[in-house]
Write a structure and sequence with these properties.
Number of helices: 5
CATH topology of the largest domain: 2,3-Dihydroxybiphenyl 1,2-Dioxygenase, domain 1
Helix content: 10-25%
Length: about 300
């Protein structure tokens, strides 16, 4: 009788131990909820959100961004690639051309080392020795993506006199992640347009005006908007491979009402999309297509 009790007790202990080990294993193997790659918003509620590329071959473009250090994922039916401070959105379509020749000439990222990318098979078009640590990679469809490694000497940002912005200090330090958003470069008609755009981006989105190397610039969390004079007239970006840029905005409904009081006209008014997130669209005075979103942080 005692032997039966001992046997049943051993079985119960064994079952309890097995259950405990199974739960522990499941806990260890269960994926944690991923942190949003986007930067925290500024006082105006704005941060960099996404670049939306319209491409002929979505898988090939996803592999390109992954080769630079991004992480491919899905947002509903959309293929996305998460990078520090920005999300790449890829949809299939027939763009009219690459960004070169438009108001938004190119986008740029920081990486720890160009040589490390080259060792993984990424082709880098390096600039000359006068500008070390800078190069470009091309997407499968020819879109140029500028890359700065930690050794580059012209990634830093200096706020205009009298201004301080601790968030913008990220540009003046090495990065410790595989890839991070750095800047987008607008090519404008003349110096008067550069000055006007600097004021417009700072006022409209709460950015910090200053200089990135020799360029006037406005810094927002996750992106530095660089402003330069175009060597020849630039076209609006809509319909190109980089179809539009996106800013993620906290309390977007209220933000769009504020824009209306500032005289900013929306191409599409604030509305809720099928995923329950907020959206609105506008075009800046120089032809840059901008989508405002609220909800990408859930991605």
């Amino acid at each position: 009788m005692k032997s039966d009790h001992r046997s049943r007790f051993a079985v119960l202990v064994g079952a309890a131990l097995l259950t405990s080990l199974t739960v522990a294993a499941q806990t260890r193997s269960a994926p944690s909820t991923p942190r949003s790659p986007l930067a925290a918003p500024n006082a105006a509620g704005v941060a960099m959100g996404h670049y939306h590329f319209v491409v002929r071959d979505v898988p090939a473009n996803a592999r390109f961004w992954t080769s630079l250090g991004g992480v491919t994922s899905k947002a509903g039916e959309k293929t996305i690639v998460k990078l520090t401070d920005v999300i790449i959105v890829l949809t299939e379509g027939q763009p009219s051309g690459v960004s070169e020749g438009t108001v938004l000439n190119h986008v740029a990222f920081r990486v720890p080392s160009l040589a490390a990318l080259e060792s993984r098979g990424v082709t880098i078009e390096r600039l000359g020795p006068e500008l070390p640590g800078i190069g470009s990679a091309r997407t499968p469809e020819g879109e140029r993506v500028e890359l700065f490694e930690n050794a580059a000497t012209n990634v830093g940002f200096t706020p205009d006199v009298g201004l301080k912005d601790p968030i913008a200090e990220r540009h003046n330090k090495p990065i410790g992640v595989p890839i991070a958003s750095h800047h987008l470069h607008l090519y404008l008609p003349d110096e008067a347009a550069v000055a006007a755009a600097k004021t417009w981006y700072a006022k409209t989105f709460g950015g910090t005006p200053g200089k990135r190397w020799r360029y006037d610039a406005v810094d927002l969390p996750g992106i530095n908007v660089n402003l330069g004079v175009a060597p020849k007239p630039a076209q609006p970006m809509k319909g190109r491979t980089l179809d539009h840029i996106g800013f993620e905005v906290t309390n977007l409904a209220a933000f769009t009402k504020k824009l209306a009081t500032m005289g900013v006209r929306l191409d599409e008014p604030y509305h809720r999309n099928a995923d329950g997130g907020g959206e609105a669209r506008l075009t800046d005075p120089w032809g840059t297509s901008i989508e405002l979103t609220e909800g990408l942080r859930r991605w």
